[in-house]
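hi!! sorry for the late reply, been swamped w classes. u asked for the two structures so here they r. pasted raw, havent cleaned anything up. first the sequence of the first protein and right below it the tokens
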Amino acid sequence: MEKLSFKVAEFEGPLDLMLFLISKHKLDIYDIQISLLLEQYMAYINRLKENDLEVASEFLEMASRLVYIKTVMLLPKHEEEGQTLKTELQGQLLEYQVCRLAAAKLGEQNQMYSTFVREMEPIPVDRVYKLSHSPAELYNAYQDAIGKGRRRLPPPAQAFSGIVSRRVVSVASRVVFVLKKLYRTGRTAYLSLFEDSQGDRSEMVATFLAVLELVKAKRITISDDGTQVNFERRRKGKEN
């Protein structure tokens, strides 16, 4: 028997292998000699095992099927059943052969079309807006566009009115105010210094800081109970 020499990767399945064996040994696909086909098929399986290659389960399953067909055909009482199994196998091989030929033709067409290049054609641009919308949709879109435009504008002056419009009161001006108030009477109630502020926080804070500055400079004193502010007059000749 001729020694097999072929590449394992060429066979996609057991049917592909059997078509190769039928073509190689010139067997009649319409009247397959199961014994000869089984012998060639098992030679392929054994060759894989000798090369320590993994044998796919579908190849082993087909080998078992061929052995079963050969066994049944050898039994006189089951000869018809064996012939039926043989006919089914021949039908599968014929269908697979047709599919393989069709795939080869499609592959040739694909290679031919893959080299086809079509030049670009100018496409006319239609700038007419052909959709229609209800007035409510147009109004909402207009309002949305206005809102986006307004968000890009700088904030209006009214947004800074609470910050810029507040009156800035300096501590120096309140120092003069406290000294004038105490110069007339020499003393006054502590809370009376804040009566003219009328709730203006900036003026009240500036007045409080002015009192602290005057106490630090020893120009005024505050009573122990914190209710009176006294003016300290400096005598001439004792000032450094």
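now the second protein. again sequence first, tokens right under
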Amino acid sequence: MFSMRVADLVQKLAEKGLHAQVQGDGNLVITGIASMHSAQAGQITFLSNSRNREQLVTCQASVVVLTETDLPFCQMTALVVNNPYVAYAHIAQIMDTTPQPAQGIAPSAVVSPQATIGRQVSIGANTVIESGVILGDHVIIGAGCFIGKNARIGTGSRLWANVALYHEVEIGQYCLIHAGSVIGADGFGYANESGKWIKIPQLGTVQIGNHVEIGACTTIDRGALDNTVIGNGVIIDNQCQIAHNVVIGENTAIAGGVIMAGSLKIGRYCQIGGASVINGHMEIADKVVITGMGMVMRPITEPGIYSSGVPLQPNKTWRKTAALVMSIDKINQRLKKVERHIDKDPASSDDALSK
């Protein structure tokens, strides 16, 4: 069970470069973390939005993380920080009790004698490590994984169960890949010869930078000739499809269910909303935000927030909207007719509209 004094927690945060000031009893012992509405005595919570400060009256937590602006409304021990949500993320890391994917090298693991294994590496049951693989120090590989020939995994990276890394895939340092993900499968490359599909071997690989997190059951295809490249600090949610030769810039965030077509280039510090679909063979600039279910068919050259799609409506309203969309060509023709009449004779515009 986790247990830590508030004063010691502040010291741990300082080691992470986060300044926190205790207002109240620094000797209180924290045993858990919870949301404001469910926290109990002994737990720490956080207030990230002043609009919710009325919850401080009924909150049962022993400690709350908040800003100096909200401190006058707090009757319990507080940690005063600049950004409570960021502080919460760091505190959750400190208090995290998630077990490691593996401990030690399981007897059932199959490790090629031609593989290079670093110091303090753990490999789970029934995992296969093929020849030429290089595992850095402190790498942890969960049960049932497959690491193909000449693949490389950098220092401190972790793979959960049933991850497949195809041959020559490169994973950087301190990455986290969740269960069921497949990195380096063939891209969707075929040539059509008189109606018959001829497979194009995918001769590139996948290069993943440092501090990258990849969600469960996400697939990242290897390049056809050049490599598929995922930059440092990229975070990718569950069940995403990233096609061959895609390049994703540093610190971009990709929510669940996103589909990216081949040879797409995405800039740095972008945010891609869930279930978005992005066409290939084009570029998206740095610092672009695409809201959920966006359909991106053309390049985006300027930073900003972009959206598409029809928001949910009651079925009756949606049917009317759909009918209008289906009639948009007729409406456009009528509009052009009106414009032509106005250009010829402005006085006839009312007559044109009536026809």
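hope this helps!! also noticed smth abt the second:
The chain has a mean pLDDT of 95.
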